[in-house]
Write a structure and sequence with these properties.
The complex is a heterodimer. By secondary structure, chain A is mostly helical. Helices cover 73% and strands 1% of the residues of chain A. Chain A has one domain. Chain A contains twelve helices and two strands, in the order H-H-H-E-E-H-H-H-H-H-H-H-H-H. The two termini of chain B are 29 Å apart. Chain B is α/β, with parallel strands linked by helices. In chain B, helix 9 packs across helix 11. Chain B has eleven helices and 13 strands. Classes of the chains: A mainly alpha, B alpha/beta. At the A-B interface, helix 1, helix 6 and helix 12 of A face strand 5 and helix 4 of B.
């Protein structure tokens, strides 16, 4: 067990070092994350001044801003830039051989790499995030209670794992289709709407909402934000988190199965 | 007991055949034509502990495929193989800890980080004891003369330096079996020589079992006691390097030094005259004819000196390979690939 932990730590620290090699790219990438939110805020302020209403489908202007700021946090956990294409590339280029001949598990290795990515990102992004939230504190109803906060944090951690395994599955499809970029494009498009990145999902009509809230994608942006804003409580919260755990396990297992089947095919094809 | 036991090992797979042009590409969207590639055809081989075996063959002969099978990256379509008692393609962790694969065209190190970091990772994933790790690393860096390069990012190293790092990474866990696929490809003569020297020394010292694939004769001649020639997925020869000439070259190279610098006629009768630089003439003569031909030449001409040699190994092998390629041009279907 100790040996395993120490291996994980080494992978983590090496991934972190690698992350900091390209400092410029890294810093720019981190700061640029804030741009989309600014456009969203301007968009909704324009919409509100045009329709001359205090509320749109139950959301005030303040609610929108608070929602978008919170989805930004969700996405800081759940988004996995380049993971699927990275896996696809490893398969196509044959770099994957390394994971077949060395005593190391590829999916675990990538997971640690992503944890390192996220840690590196948080160390740089925490200060600007805190500043933005401080400046925008007027848009929030106030701090949620301890239970809600704990649920929020749990849902964020789960959204990281779910996002990782979901995108890893996309990449592993590369064993069958050598090029996964169009599949990824479709996924990103769907994810943009169904995750709640585009608009709050509780604006949807009841039937559509019910369906969307059963899908895994809404955990990537909408769900943690909704939890923080106190929209999901009591049994709904328990159910929501349980379903998130279930989806996470499902995709973790699916990625294993895809990896196994993929290797079988790869091994049959000539490597 | 043999470390590597291969019996009737075969590997074939289908590849997509794309015809030329845009129209064919569009048709390829709906119906694809495939061709069976028989990369390895029923190979059997025994390798004992401490042997240094070279796989020699033209491009696409099945060398790399065999190494991929033995390192467990791909499954065979038929036959069996055992390495140290393991079936390679089961990819047991216990097996992975005991061998290493180095491919001349593949990079296993972290590109943006100093090689040192990759080594540290290997220490962890192979669970190498710290003092053993340090001792092995010291030895390897000493032998390969790379100490001062350890802290330089891998992407800034030259090809030769990078290969030295690859070898170091592969040997840190002291594998008992090492597969080398074209380890000197693209390297200059000096770097090639360094790597050969190192491999030779290390193999002798540690008595590890090495299988090397290469099409550089120099690698093979410098390193291996045993040569396996493989063409079109089949073993054509298995034995010592010098035995190749006996087996595949039915000719001798005879160099005559004439007594006078005057052209001589009629030498074509005995064999193929390949070079005339008076007073020297080089003739290729069938081995069985050599005594008779020499007697006749000596009787008819004034000769100062005679040298009878085997043709150079490179030539013999090049002849063998091109002969095989000609045969495969006639036989249309099975074209082997790596």
């Amino acid at each position: 067990m100790y040996a395993r932990l120490s291996t994980w730590w080494t992978i983590l620290s090496i991934s972190l070092q690698e992350r900091f090699v390209y400092r410029g790219d890294f810093a720019l990438g981190t700061l640029m994350r804030f741009l989309p939110i600014v456009t969203q805020i301007f968009l909704w302020s324009a919409v509100f001044s045009a329709v001359q209403q205090k509320r749109i489908v139950g959301y005030s202007y303040e609610d929108f801003v608070a929602y978008y700021l919170l989805t930004m946090i969700s996405r800081a956990f759940s988004s996995m830039p380049g993971l699927a294409s990275q896996i696809g590339y490893q398969i196509r280029s044959g770099d994957i051989k390394k994971y077949l001949t060395q005593p190391v598990d590829m999916i675990g290795f990538f997971l640690l790499g992503r944890i390192a990515h996220k840690l590196a990102y948080y160390t740089v992004a925490t200060a600007p995030f805190a500043l933005v939230f401080f400046l925008c504190r007027g848009f929030f109803p106030g701090w949620p209670d301890a239970t809600t906060l704990a649920a929020f944090i749990a849902s964020l951690v789960l959204s990281f794992l779910l996002g990782f395994f979901l995108e890893a599955c996309m990449g592993l499809v590369g064993f069958w289709f050598l090029e996964v970029s169009s599949l990824l494009f479709v996924y990103m498009l769907l994810s943009f709407f169904l995750s709640g990145h585009m608009f709050p999902l509780d604006m949807l009509p009841p039937t559509a909402r019910q369906i969307v809230l059963l899908l895994p994608l809404h955990y990537l942006a909408y769900f943690p934000a909704a939890v923080f804003l106190g929209k999901v409580q009591g049994m709904d919260l328990v159910w929501g988190l349980s379903l998130q755990v279930a989806w996470t396990i499902f995709f973790a297992l699916l990625s294993r199965v895809l990896f196994k089947l993929g290797l079988k095919r790869y091994g049959g094809y000539g490597g | 007991m043999a470390v590597i036991e291969i019996d009737n090992l075969s590997k074939s797979y289908r590849v997509y055949q794309k015809r030329e042009g845009l129209w064919a590409s569009i048709r390829g969207l709906f119906r694809r034509q495939y061709r069976d590639v028989h990369a390895v055809r029923s190979i059997s081989l025994r390798v004992e502990k401490g042997e240094f075996v070279a796989f020699l063959g033209p491009n696409g002969a099945g060398k790399t495929t065999t190494l991929k099978l033995l390192s467990g990256i791909i499954y065979p379509t038929g036959g069996t193989a055992r390495v140290m008692g393991f079936v390679p393609w089961e990819r047991k962790i216990a097996y992975r800890r005991r061998f290493a694969l180095v491919m001349g065209q593949k990079n296993q190190l972290w590109w943006d980080l100093p090689a040192q970091e990759s080594f540290r990772l290997h220490q962890q994933i192979y669970r190498i004891e710290p003092h053993q790790f340090q001792a092995t690393l010291d030895e390897l860096t000493e032998l390969l003369d790379i100490r001062k390069l350890l802290s330089q990012p891998v992407r800034e190293l030259s090809l030769g330096e990078r290969m030295k790092m690859e070898l170091t990474a592969a040997l840190l866990h002291q594998p008992e079996v090492l597969y080398l696929d074209e380890p000197t490809i693209g390297l200059d003569v000096v770097a090639q020589h360094r790597i050969q020297q190192f491999l030779k020394h290390y193999q002798q010292e540690r008595q590890i079992t090495i299988m090397l694939s290469s099409h550089y004769m120099k690698d093979v001649a410098a390193l291996c006691q045993r040569v396996v020639i493989i063409t079109q997925g089949q073993i054509r020869y298995d034995g010592s390097l010098s035995g190749i000439i006996d087996r595949f070259s039915g000719q001798k190279l005879v160099t005559l030094t004439l007594a006078e610098e005057a052209p001589v006629d009629g030498l074509e009768r005995f064999g193929q005259v390949i070079e005339v630089q008076l007073p020297k003439v080089k003739i290729r003569i069938d081995r069985a004819q050599v005594p008779k031909a020499l007697a006749a030449i000596l009787a008819q001409h004034a000769i100062e000196d005679i040298a009878v040699e085997d043709p150079p190994l490179e030539e013999v092998i090049a002849d063998l390979f091109s002969q095989v390629q000609k045969e495969s041009a006639v036989e249309p279907e099975p074209v082997a690939a790596e």
